Batch of 4 targets.
Target 1
Amino acid sequence: MTKLDFAVNQRRFSFGDGAAEIDSSLLEFLRKEGFTGCKQVCGEGGCGACTAVLSFWDPETNSTKHQSVATCLLPLPFVHHMHITTIEGLSKLSDGELHPVSEAFYEMGASQCGFCT
């Protein structure tokens, strides 16, 4: 039996063969699970509204790598053994403080992608 294991904002997910979720994009899965910070706007990966960060172990460098991705284009099985961080995952650190990226967004009046402006 094939399994799909990954995490979103420190929350683990696991699915087996035949799970309906396996046929979705990462964005569709995120929205269904209540991670609404990533939005579907252009559906082509060009606007940035669906951007998230993938973190994964790189055995060649023996370190964790981080890569931004357009979740609307990424098939969910691609994230096997990876960790996804959405804008919600940046909102609060374990000590209750804002993440530095969220703090900068707040202080500078930024938006996630600017599409609505």
Note: The first helix runs from residue 26 to 32.
Target 2
Amino acid sequence: MYSVQPVTRPVDGIVRIPGSKSITNRALVLAALSDGPVTLTRALFSDDTARMRECLSALGFTIVSDEAQETITVQGQGGTIPAEHAPLFVGNSGTTARFIAPLVALGQGTFTIDGVARMRERPIGDLVDALRSLGVSVDCPTGCPPLTIHAAGLHGGSAVIRADASSQFLSGLLLAAPRAQAPTKITIDGPFLSAPYVQMTVELVRQFGGEIIVSNDQREYTVSPITGGQGAEKTGLGGYPIEPDASSASYFFAAAAITGGRVRIEGLGINSLQGDTAFVDVLEKMGCTVLKAESFIEVQGGALRGITVDMNAISDTVMTLAAVAVFADGPTVIENVGHIRHKETDRLSATACELARLGVTVEEREGGLTIWPCEKTRPATIQTYDDHRMAMAFALIGLRNPGVTIANPECVAKTFPDYFDRLEALCDAGRD
């Protein structure tokens, strides 16, 4: 259990945030496919990135990790997969499952991808269908992991993929496609979720020497094959710095909003690859003052007002906004995020349940929430559903109101192992 101690003064400080999970896991895949060694600096060390490193090691890639220095060196193999057989355990890391599947399709052999019980409930059928249309033999009886890939190289061609359950299906294909034997064209069918994450993937692939042509409507992606010497060595990526995690930064920006304080995150600026930096724009609409520069973003809290917001593109910050909404002057309406029911837990249902436990009035809809203000919440132990974002977001409510306890705080290890230490460091100066 973690009992949150309220602050008596607004928080004020500069917070150092670990490296981005999204960028670290994408960069690990691209480094493995590069034409030589790549060292990731300021890399994230968490459960999710550990699962990716373990899978790459199981596939025969040489990886040297130094957690104290926050570096990971991957010996790229030029688009080949060293192992011919490997069981690959992804835990509850959706990014690992969805990125590893197209990666192993480049190889020669049989590879099985499996995870924890919750992972076996998380759909992956859209990605399986796309791989099959590219000629990959995949066994996936339930439409969820486990899945077995009988790899014989990725030949290129055309695939249509749905991206209304997860944009990571498309990202996984884009990461592997530059090492296919011929050009690959991927077309999106239906609604397109979390587009900024796909834009991040495209930019990373380009930085690692790949070529992707994106249609004007961002629904067609044509990927050219990389020839020898066009990987990391060509682009000079002996070292690749990882940005601070924008999703993780959202909790500290929210702490400024909730307490009327000021928080600056350095290393995260206006040129960030991460779409979740747009969370501060939501806070600005609620009444905060936001300062953006090339090397930092800063939020100053203000009188909070309720808003209506489509959070489809920044859905990992829904629960962060839910915590802020408790202290607004009117209802906050969150729309177009029905897909987060398929994350580590059903995040809409879980958020509504735990807000109600605190005495907050909330309406749950299929695709969103409406949250009414509740200046004085009641004491409660928050259930986290083994979901890191539940733990991190709901702790923020305890900065204003006493009696908030977080069950299973260890679940934050998925993406931010020392979250509570860093939150305490920010808040200590604001307590008597």
Note: The chain has a mean pLDDT of 93.
Target 3
Amino acid sequence: AAHIARIALWITDHQMNLEAHKRFRGDTRPTVPIKSSPHILQANALRANWQDFLPPAECSYIVGNPPFIGKKEQNAEQKEDLELLFSDVKGAGVLDYVTGWYIKAAHYIKANPAVHCAFVSTNSITQGEQVAVLWGELLRLGVHIQFAHRTFKWSNEGKGVAAVHCVIVGFALTPPTACTIFDYSDDIKGNPTKIAAAQINPYLVDAPMILLARRTAPIANGLTINYGSMPIDNGHLILSADEYKLAIREDKSNAALIRPYTGGDEFLNNIKRYCLWLVDASPATIRESAFATQRIKLVKSYREKSGRATTQKLALVPSQFGEIRQPKSAYLLLPKVSSETRRFMPIGFVNAKTIASGSALIIPKAKLFHFGVLSSSAHNAWMRAVCGRLESRYQYSAGIVYNNLPWPQGLSDKALQAIETAAQAVLDAREAYPDSSLADLYDPNTMPSVLTKAHQKLDKAVDAAYKYKGGKEDAPRVAFLFERYLALTSLLPTAPTKRRRVRVKE
């Protein structure tokens, strides 16, 4: 990396010499052959003392493309690097490696607030659980975001190098005279649109300076959301479609012990899976089934051999799922992970006989109103702005996305009816294609026009309920919802400010 940087800086120096010669029509100092090279320190950047290398008073800019290493991919030394930098910051264990450069830079420029910084980073530092941890500390240190490139797709020409979703964040300790957002909208491989902003918050939108902390309950109007049930069984309670057929062929009475089983992937792609569900089965019925008895013995053995004390305790009830959260009536299912290419995250109602797995989130007692709001462009824009990512896919979060969502308030019967009617129309449009999965229906290349129109009508009803009159793009919707969030969560009236508001909600 140091060698590449040395060559890159030399090439830039050479190009500028050629430009100077062209502009001023005079001689410049020769750059070929190379007689001097830039001063480069080969060291661990997160442990080196930047002030010893270059005094802040002599620095104008800090720019870089730090390593993209997620929390799970960091080695022991890299984890220790971040622990040293974030020793006093609660929850720092979730941070990507790149965040170390932000903290080092923020401390370095204290001695010279005129220095401006910019880093290319994975977009994870502006989404999900990392935002409150990293930017809570940066805002405390007085950092102001000056400009930002919102999510774009970047890759180099190296063999086997995967494309990553990046952002560029420019920041300083001085308040900006003007803020600029470069927005790529739906074309993250293309050229951005330049947007003037009053301010840029850590989610890279022109909105109040709010950090969304993980919540255990919705802020308003939302029903409780849970994960599906967790088997903790090493797969012995779960059946494929073929295994289900074999169990029924072995003994038809086994059908009473087996339920359909769905997670996000099964729900989106119409994949058939099943599970042994023995919550209501009598001991006598279970013992009569050789198939169930064999599976239960395997579960018991697995749990007894586990290194976790809680799993070992579950060996006392090997016929049951380890964690049971199955509703008694129909529920709304939200996949935890969904493709970033979809304009709408597909969700839907599931009957109580179908067991939801831990790869799905469920909302018991949900009505058409809840389905309508969560299927709208408003909620989907909110989700895209604040959720985490699994690779490039959206990773939905109960604590960050759902529980922080500002739902419409004070709805009239007419507004509620409009949402319910439009929500039902979306469900009806789906039913017109019984041979298509939700993945088929919501693929941007194959989404039927009748479903698109139904969603447009739903958006109109939900926007009216919010009293939202802005543009259809994500950015103005998210800015509006941040304002609604601030109004719902502020315990005391907040005096308006011209530029910067900071609210860290626990």
Note: Residues 2-24 form the longest helix (23 residues).
Target 4
Amino acid sequence: MNVNGGDTAWVLVSCALVILMLPALALFYGGLVRGKNLLNTWMMSLAMLGLVGVQWVLFGYGTTFGPGGSLWGSLSWAGLRSVGLTPHAGYGDTIPHLLFAAFQGIFALLTIALVSGAVVERMRFRAWLVFALLWTTFIYDPLARWVWAEGGWLRNLGALDFAGGLVVHVSAGTSALVAAAFLGPRREGTMPHSVPMSLLGGGLVAVGWCGFNAGSALAANGVAALALVNTFAGGAAGMLLWMLLELALAGEATALGAVTGLVIGLVAVTPAAGYVTPLAALAIGCLGGCASFGALRLRLRTKVDDALDVFACHGVAGIVGALLTGVFATTALNPGGADGLLAGRPALVGIQGLSILVALGFSALGTAGLLGLMSLVMPLRVELGEEMAGLDQTEHGQLAYPGGGGEGGFTPLAEGVLLPLEEYAVPRDPLGRPLV
């Protein structure tokens, strides 16, 4: 096997695009919290570049993709030893093995950053760092091995996950829900302080998603082009669906609703991006959007404070996308995939369903176990006074808005006065999206 310059260049660009998703996610999440918690919310995402980046080089890549059994790798590739500049069979046949390791490492740090959206505004930063390290090591790394690594047992079973529906979104969404329930609700609830910040972050996330999905082809070829088009189609369908639902049911299309639909469509199409037709991608984006639209409203009837709806947006859409991969997948476009239900092989739906259950159960039980053990040795939540003061000040000793600004709301009226949620004609969820 020889290194191909074009393929290598594309995966290098894809690495940069996926890294962009980390600060983009920080912006997206940051706009949805109170201004006094902005820096803390950003840090919970951006710090993963340092924490998980080091973990991945030291041992994470080896235990995930290195030589070993169907459940766990080994330390033979610790420090990226023996991970060289030539291709490794099964891990990008035309790109340097080291580049594949870097690309997968960025996926790892982005996944745990997604989980932070469920626990913002109340979790101690040092506890978050410990949890993030343990979660990546004992939940993300094994699950990624089972689905993506040579010899992984779900991969051997025939499970399809092109770019992380199971490994990234189902695991992150499930763990986020469990973590939110474990920590308990915030005292103040939610108040997005900057909708434009979230819109900018969501738009940049969509840009990075091109590398996230199309880069997972690991080559500059037709499958990468297919994944790129399907990413565009799925995200567009999710966004349009959400706007139409809000217009039809509430008479208005909110900015946060539109960007929420965009992200959900991207999530839903991710596991299928390199295996289905563009028309199927449109259907997956719409169906994922419908499921998340309902899940978000259902969650609001519970006492679980999944602050930024990580499970409804990522977990539910990831489940729908992974299952529909078993319906729409076809080898007519990607011989490296498999045929699904509509191509005459209904067994793939069962395989995908089993994989979803494995990802759900493993992530939920693992997260509960890690948090339970941590709670025995360290406090996970800030104290009431610290929460009221804001985590920027109490956890980091800095303020995003030293002048006291940044506590904005949903709709500016005259002289900057904000309309309280209960005074809107249409009922709202805590992020200002209409409830119907």
Note: Residues 248 and 303 are 28 Å apart (CA to CA).
